[in-house]
Amino acid sequence: MSMVSVRLPDALLEQVNAFSREMDIPRAEYVRLALEAMNREMLEKRRRERLKALSLRVREESMKVNAEFDGLDDGGA
User: Fold this and answer.
1) What gap in Å lies between CA 67 and CA 26, rounded to an integer?
2) Measured distance CA(1)–CA(29) in Å, rounded
3) Do residues 8 and 16 make contact, with C-beta atoms less than 8 angstroms apart?
4) What is the Cα–Cα distance from 45 to 33, expressed in whole angstroms?
5) Which of 20, 24, 55, 59 could anchor a disulfide with 30, C-beta 3.0 to 4.6 Å?
6) What is the pLDDT of residue 77?
7) Helix (H) or strand (E) holding 65
8) For the segment 22-69, what is each residue's pLDDT rounded down to a tens digit?
9) How do residues 46-55 score in pLDDT, each as one tens digit?
10) What is the reported pTM?
11) Where are the chain's structural domains?
């Protein structure tokens, strides 16, 4: 496992210390859990953005197909 050193504002470190004590876990574990939560959030954001982009592409293609159908002769109906 690799080690990372970070500088934190005093107020943030105080919160980290308080919450890690409240959860009865080491401070390093609290920080790891927080980073994992942020990574999950970022991955979910990327997934939503990809789905939105794909949805827009599908919608554009659907509109083209609908326009083609609108241009077809009704066939005598």
Assistant:
1) 62
2) 13
3) yes
4) 18
5) 20
6) 55
7) helix 27-71
8) 999 999 999 999 999 999 999 999 999 999 999 988 888 888 888 888
9) 999 999 999 9
10) 0.69
11) 10-71
* pLDDT(73) > 90: no
Interatomic CA distance for residues 65 and 61, integer angstroms: 6
Q: Which helix (H) or strand (E) holds 11?
A: helix 10-23
Residues 6 or more apart whose CB falls under 8 angstroms from that of 8 comprise 16
Instruction: Quote the tokens at residue 47.
Output: 């997934």
Task: Give the pLDDT confidence score for residue 72 in this predicted structure.
Answer: 80
Q: Are 11 and 18 a contacting pair, CB within 8 Å? A: no
**Amino acid of residue 59:** R
DSSP string for residues in 16-44: HHHHHHHHTS-HHHHHHHHHHHHHHHHHH
Please report how many Cα atoms fall inside a 13 Å half-sphere around the Cα of residue 42, on the Cβ side.
6
Counting Cα atoms < 13 Å in the Cβ hemisphere of 13 gives: 5
